[in-house]
């Protein structure tokens, strides 16, 4: 059996999935994972309960598919021609996402759910693995240009840019801003130059 979201269907099926996932995102952002009830999702999305249970079957599967779609539709990696420019674009994307009223609430709810729901935790980890892999070539390109030492761990560089932004998001009442993004990039660039990310 194919996992929900691993095939991008067309026509009516695609419309149903789009409506359901939009509804799931709204409900999780507004009320959290625990309030995600399949009959309510079906009613709000305008789809039959039988269809919903057949295709997804659980709240965890709905959230998993939502994260698949979010990873697939998120902004692609930048290619500015410099490591500083690319990492700045990556940091700006994180700031924009966490600062967005709906997306910020959605991610907070996802993190809370992941603490107690193994399926959501695995789906969230997969989401970030996809996004980090999308942006890692920025660092590989920088190595080729001589902007970073050979052997620099591209994935860890991308994670290091986002880490302080998420920390601020989760531990303070205000989301990260442009100054936080610039600071994160400056710190990571200094660490890259010092060889902190090489094996």
Describe this protein's structure.
Keywords: DNA-binding, Transcription, Transcription regulation. GO terms for molecular function: DNA-binding transcription factor activity; transcription cis-regulatory region binding. With 199 residues, the chain is mostly helical. It folds into 2 domains: 11-70, Homeodomain-like (Arc Repressor Mutant, subunit A, Orthogonal Bundle); 76-193, Tetracycline Repressor, domain 2 (Orthogonal Bundle). 72% of the residues lie in helices and 0% in strands. The chain has 10 helices and no strands. It is elongated and about 55 Å long.
List its salient traits.
Tetracycline Repressor, domain 2; disordered N terminus; Arc Repressor Mutant, subunit A; 2 domains; mainly alpha; 72% helix
Structural Rg: 19 Å
Bin the helical content: over 70%
**CATH topology description of the largest domain:** Tetracycline Repressor, domain 2
Q: What is the count of helical runs?
A: 10
Task: Write the CATH architecture name of the largest domain.
Answer: Orthogonal Bundle
The name of the CATH superfamily of the largest domain reads Tetracycline Repressor, domain 2
N- to C-terminal distance: 40 Å
Q: Regions with pLDDT < 50 over 5+ consecutive residues? A: 1-9
Shape: elongated
What fraction strand? under 5%
What's the rounded overall pLDDT mean? 92
Largest sheet: none
> What is the highest CATH level, the class of the largest domain?
Mainly Alpha
Helix-strand category: mainly alpha
Whole-number count of domains: 2
**Strand elements, count:** 0
Helix-strand topology string: HHHHHHHHHH
């Amino acid at each position: 059996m194919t996992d929900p979201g691993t095939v991008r269907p067309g026509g009516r099926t695609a419309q149903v999935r789009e409506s359901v996932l939009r509804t799931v995102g709204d409900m999780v952002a507004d009320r959290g994972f625990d309030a995600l009830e399949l009959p309510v999702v079906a009613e709000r999305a305008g789809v039959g309960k039988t269809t919903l249970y057949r295709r997804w079957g659980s709240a965890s599967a709905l959230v998993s598919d939502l994260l698949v779609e979010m990873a697939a539709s998120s902004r692609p990696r930048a290619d500015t021609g410099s490591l500083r420019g690319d990492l700045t674009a990556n940091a700006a994307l994180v700031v924009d996402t966490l600062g967005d009223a709906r997306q910020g609430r959605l991610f907070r709810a996802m993190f809370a759910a992941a603490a107690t729901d193994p399926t959501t935790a695995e789906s969230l980890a997969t989401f970030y693995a996809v996004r980090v892999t999308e942006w890692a070539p920025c660092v590989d390109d920088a190595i080729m240009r001589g902007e970073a030492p050979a052997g620099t761990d591209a994935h860890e560089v991308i994670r290091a840019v986002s880490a302080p932004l998420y920390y601020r998001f989760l531990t303070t009442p205000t989301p990260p801003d442009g100054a936080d993004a610039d600071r994160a990039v400056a710190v990571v660039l200094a660490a890259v130059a010092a060889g902190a990310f090489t094996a």
